[in-house]
Design goal:
Largest sheet of chain B: none
CATH architecture of chain A: Up-down Bundle
Helix content of chain A: over 70%
Structural class of chain A: mainly alpha
Low-confidence stretches of chain B: none
Largest interface: A-B, 48 and 47 residues
Shape of chain B: flat
Number of domains of chain B: 2
Low-confidence stretches of chain A: none
Number of strands of chain B: 0
Oligomer: heterodimer
Order of helices and strands of chain A: HHHHHHH
Helix content of chain B: over 70%
Largest sheet of chain A: none
Chain lengths: 196, 102
């Protein structure tokens, strides 16, 4: 039996089910990160002293990573635009670029984490590092998850384009919404942890 | 694909490029402002304003929120309300005196 409203919009909402589903999921993600941001505010305002992020974290690396993630959002949206133009080859180039930029982000984070561990800074060191590792670690998991989905669309998942291009385009759009959300979270994490 | 549809996608792509440039510039501005070593309340306010502008650009244009259906706005309005409550909890905790400084 075919699942209804995967491509066509429902009459009552004007949206297909996938679009509603991904936005409800993102709403839950807002609450997940919101809880951690609230914890950060509580811990920081309750602390007698709090270090400025730029005195113990690498701002150049984080700035570079911000530019990488913003670039990956552009390649993601260009991948979707390529599918709207029915250009699978261009789509593959952009979605591949998005995955690679995600990989660059994770590699930079690996060097950042390695440096911290090398100097004996762990989540258990103090409240700053506890919230730093929790927030950035959770964000990294989201980057890895988004990369896995996008890599699937670049590889085996692209087969669906030949049988149902509209459905495939919708799936890529929903994956893109998640990826942009991950970028959006980093836009707030960067000044919060590294600059203030 | 109709020519109207193609023109529409071309217009979208031009917007994406403009937003990309704006986000890059705003990132540099964020870092530059942090070098000014403003007082903490002012630094937090400025950083938050710039981050909200950047986040709005991503949400409105990359996530197409600027032309989304009403149901999505309704979902996000409820989410935003709960998010504000969540972030207000630390403030309420302080004002009720649950937190006692050392």
């Amino acid at each position: 039996m075919e699942i209804p409203y995967t491509v066509e919009a429902r009459r009552d909402t004007g949206l297909n089910n996938g679009k509603i589903g991904i936005w409800l999921f993102l709403a839950s993600e807002v609450m997940l990160f919101g809880a951690l941001f609230a914890s950060y505010i509580l811990i920081r305002t309750g602390s007698s002293s709090w270090p400025r992020g730029d005195t113990i974290l690498s701002v150049p690396l984080a700035t570079f990573n911000t530019l990488v993630l913003i670039s990956s959002s552009v390649t993601m949206v260009m991948a979707w635009a390529s599918l709207m133009r029915r250009k699978l080859g261009t789509f593959r180039m952009y979605i591949g670029g998005t995955v690679l930029l995600g990989l660059v982000f994770l590699i930079v984070k690996y060097f950042e984490y390695s440096d911290k561990f090398h100097h004996g800074h762990f989540p258990s060191t103090d409240n700053f590092y506890a919230i730093y590792f929790t927030l950035t670690g959770l964000h990294m998991l989201h980057v890895a998850g988004g990369m896995a989905v996008n890599a699937y669309f670049w590889g085996p998942g692209a087969k669906q384009y030949y049988t149902n291009p509209e459905w495939f385009t919708n799936r890529v759009e929903n994956s893109g919404l998640f990826w942009h959300f991950v970028d959006l979270v980093w836009i707030f994490l960067f000044p919060t942890l590294y600059l203030l | 694909m109709t020519s109207d549809h193609a023109v529409d996608i071309d217009r979208h792509v031009r917007v994406y490029i403009s937003v990309f440039v704006a986000l890059m510039v705003l990132t540099v501005i964020t870092v530059a402002i942090s070098r000014l070593h403003l007082s903490v309340p002012l630094a937090v306010t400025v950083a938050l304003v710039v981050a909200i502008v950047k986040g709005s650009l991503v949400a409105c244009y990359f996530m197409h929120l600027i032309s989304e259906k009403k149901l999505i706005y309704a979902v996000l309005a409820v989410t935003a309300a709960f998010f504000v409550v969540l972030l207000a909890l630390p403030v309420v905790t302080h004002s009720n005196g649950y937190w006692i400084p050392e």
